[in-house]
Write a structure and sequence with these properties.
The complex is a heterodimer. In chain A, about 20% of the residues lie in helices and about 35% in strands. By secondary structure, chain A is of the alpha/beta class. Chain B has one domain: P-loop containing nucleotide triphosphate hydrolases (Rossmann fold, 3-Layer(aba) Sandwich). Classes of the chains: A alpha/beta, B alpha/beta. The interface between A and B is small, with 12 and 10 residues. The structure holds adenosine-5'-triphosphate (ATP) and magnesium ion. Magnesium ion binds next to helix 1 of chain B.
Chain lengths: ~230, ~270
């Protein structure tokens, strides 16, 4: 096996891309591009943190990397490095340089001051039935007011909520977030994924439709009636 | 859609090939003519024309749609009068020419020329979602989507409905063709319920599988002319519904003569 110069893994709120600190820069950025292109549907929309170790990356190289990701619908969000050259370049490009407080969102901050305003997290609202052949990608949540028909597909980094029948393919927490949830008024997806877990609806006749939620527990997707 | 005066332009489409668009176009043309309507049927399936064969008019073709568009003949010269109905005409597709010979705006201008003189213009759409599909829907006031009670055909119909909606031509009405009552009863085939549950559009007709259809197409005498053909009756009923008549949907019959009770529930409205 060849040694991996590029490592991609899902982290809580995006992707962590680790690039070998020693290998030729051009070679590893090319490899990164190829890897993403091979799975573009999965990566599209992702927020990326790049770890370059102690490699000094000048500003022009970093902006090339930023452009490479943007062309593929991804955002360079933060750069992790021990090199001051790299950190300066990142700051010059307005990128974050630490993973601390990377993410607004699900968790409340340590609550030094009480703020009555609920921040919420961004998402996409689709106000009609998604028919076969349609896809929705989002770096946030997806809400469908309508059905998701067989042959339609939703890929969201966050949660997926369907106010209707879910029969297509859905992938929540697509960047690796195992806390993502999927809920629908009638949950019979062709295929349902949360982060790296996957399940299909049991075959056979549908029972009486009822609202259900899907979450990951003990490393598998559990679907249960919505408690209200 | 803004309603234009004169003929209603109705496009017959499906997404999936071979589900019965041409059969439907020919039979609706005949059935509407039987109701005394002035009708043009138009074959928009450039390169794969066959509406003329199904209508029994193949040997009368001199000019075609592309000849009209490219100015080699007058529109009138490409219109072939039906043998039995003097107010039913066919405009055939070109046999061999390049599909890009026609544009959506050509279809709009041709139908606009025909509108004042006719009641219906029925357009037979090619399979697929490419240029030919866009041409065929460009002038449509209404779209009828033909499907079979089969998962893959329904999937394509759904996709087409999505495209129609995106083009402000949706959602259209559904014709469920080649229904076999006995197979539905045994749970081997999708029922009308199953299909409308997914597509959620209005069903304008269910056409049974009928062994008269293929010989009728081969001989150029569509089943709408056959008083005893089940499919013929179904097509004539669709024509009456298109004209605004309230005709109840026939329950799907199985071969043993029984009825599927669930259908009366589905169509309880009329
Ligand atoms: N109700 C029916 N019962 C039996 N045979 C049928 C029925 N409807 C259509 N057929 C047969 O199915 C075949 C395909 O029909 P048709 O040519 O009308 O489909 P199409 O959608 O126009 O196909 P294409 O996409 O190739 O243009 C033909 O042989 C036709 O005779
Ligand atoms: Mg055809």
């Amino acid at each position: 096996m060849q040694e991996q110069h590029v490592n991609i893994k899902g982290i809580k709120d995006g992707l962590l891309v680790s690039l070998s600190p020693t290998e030729e820069w051009l070679l590893i950025t090319n490899e990164l591009g190829t890897r993403i292109d091979g799975q573009s549907a999965f990566f599209s929309g992702a927020r990326v943190t790049v770890d370059v170790g102690n490699r000094p990356v000048p500003k022009h190289e970093l902006s090339t990397l930023k452009a490479l990701l943007e062309r593929r619908g991804m955002t360079l969000w933060a750069v992790l490095s021990d090199s001051s050259t790299t950190l300066d370049a990142a700051q010059a490009l307005d990128l974050r340089t630490s993973t601390a407080n990377l993410i607004p969102g699900r968790e409340d901050t340590d609550g030094s001051e009480f703020n009555p305003e609920e921040g919420g997290t961004p998402g996409v609202m689709v106000r009609r039935t998604l028919r076969s052949g349609r896809t929705v990608h989002s770096t946030g949540h997806v809400i469908v007011y309508g059905d998701v028909n067989p042959g339609a597909e939703i890929i969201a980094a966050g949660d997926v909520i369907v106010w209707g029948k879910l029969r297509g393919n859905v992938h929540a927490g697509a960047n690796g977030d195992e806390s993502a949830v999927v809920c629908a008024l009638d949950m019979t997806p062709n295929q349902l994924r949360i982060a790296g877990h996957i399940t299909v609806s049991p075959p056979g006749k549908r029972r009486q439709p009822r609202p259900e939620t899907a979450t990951v527990r003990d490393n598998q997707i559990i679907v249960e009636a919505w408690q209200y | 859609m803004t309603a234009k005066a004169g003929a209603r332009v109705v496009t017959i489409t499906s997404g999936k090939g071979g589900v019965g668009k041409t059969t439907t176009t020919a039979n609706l043309g005949i059935a509407l003519a039987r109701l005394g309507k002035k009708v043009v049927v138009m074959d928009a399936d450039i390169g794969l024309r066959n509406l003329d064969i199904v209508m029994g008019l193949e040997n009368r073709i001199v000019y075609d749609l592309v000849d009209v568009i490219e100015g080699r003949c007058q529109l009138r010269q490409a219109m072939i009068k039906h043998k039995q109905f003097p107010e039913l005409y066919l405009i055939p597709a070109a046999q061999t020419r390049d599909k890009t010979a026609i544009s959506p705006s050509d279809m709009v201008s041709i139908t606009d020329k025909l509108r004042p003189e006719f009641d219906f213009i029925i357009i037979d759409c090619p399979a697929g979602i490419e240029r030919g599909f866009r041409n065929a829907i460009a002038a449509a006031d209404e779209v009828l989507i033909v499907t079979n009670p089969e998962v893959s055909a329904v999937r394509d119909a759904d996709r087409i409905i999505g495209l129609l909606e995106a083009n402000n031509k949706g959602p259209g009405k559904l014709i469920l063709n080649r229904m076999k009552g006995d197979m539905v009863k045994k749970g081997e085939m999708l029922s009308p319920d199953d299909v409308t549950d997914i597509l959620s559009i209005k069903l304008i007709g269910i056409v049974p599988e009928d062994e008269n259809v293929i010989p009728a197409s081969n001989s150029g005498v569509p089943v709408a002319l056959n008083e005893n053909s089940k499919a013929g009756i179904a097509f004539r009923n669709i024509a009456r519904r298109l004209c605004g008549e309230e005709v109840p949907l026939m329950p799907v019959q199985d071969t043993s003569g029984g009825f599927l009770q669930r259908l009366s529930r589905l169509f309880g409205g009329n």
